[in-house]
Amino acid sequence: MEPHRRTHRKGLQERGRLSLTFGSVIVARRREDVKLKIPNSVIVDGPLSLNECRNIGAARLSTDLIAFIDDDNLLAKDVLLEMAAPFTDGKVGAVSPLIFDRDNSVWFAGVRFTFCGMAALDKSVPTGYRQTEAFHDVFMVRREAFEKAGGFDSKRFPFYMGEADLAERMKRLGYRFVVAPGAKVWHDIEPVRGIKSILRGSHIRSEKRAYLVGRNRLLFLRLYHPRRYLAHLFILPALATLHILSIIANRKFSFVRPYLRGVRDGVGNLAIAAN
Which of 21, 35, 60, 139 could disulfide-pair with 25, CB 3.0 to 4.6 Å? Predict the structure, then answer.
């Protein structure tokens, strides 16, 4: 943590402008050992999606700020305080940490939207708060903004692009998002390079996820960036080919058909976008 950031936060606390109350809720599938190890946990039955679980967890908390932390991340000390500091600006709706891979290369330092979907910003370490168009994996939101936006749309975006969908609805309410470089997180998965990294980067781990990855980028662009969606159609054959090659390189052959069905529905199923 940089010295000037530490002094700034201390000053805010002394003036009473940053008052934080922490609570935690773990949402997990039914396992006997979860309750024993984590008393404040919500055990769910059935195949609930990632964003359904996030909404359940958010509803159990009464704090002004809500941090969503996926279970494959390691957090540095004071990361929650560092993420909370930018919320003294009432227009900040969400804050992301700086996220590193296991090899300490920058994995996330902000994103922007292009006709390809989401693209990483410059992966250099920012010296101050950096604007980002969305957030994912680990992030903190202002409860008021989260609730006004309606939380996660777990029906249309149960997984993949759900954070981007939430960000777009929060932006329309006048909120903005920043990366706080003093908040450091490590994405605790083995780094993968080359063509195999496309599958890992999209988190395609099952046939259902393969379908949603194929569909949801297209659905998101259709809903919020129609001009970029039209441009995306021109590169879609090449992009789909890369995903299929990555699926084959990872020897996940059964994922090809659901991925292609997702692409088909993303392009042609108007009912999904209308609901």
Answer: 60
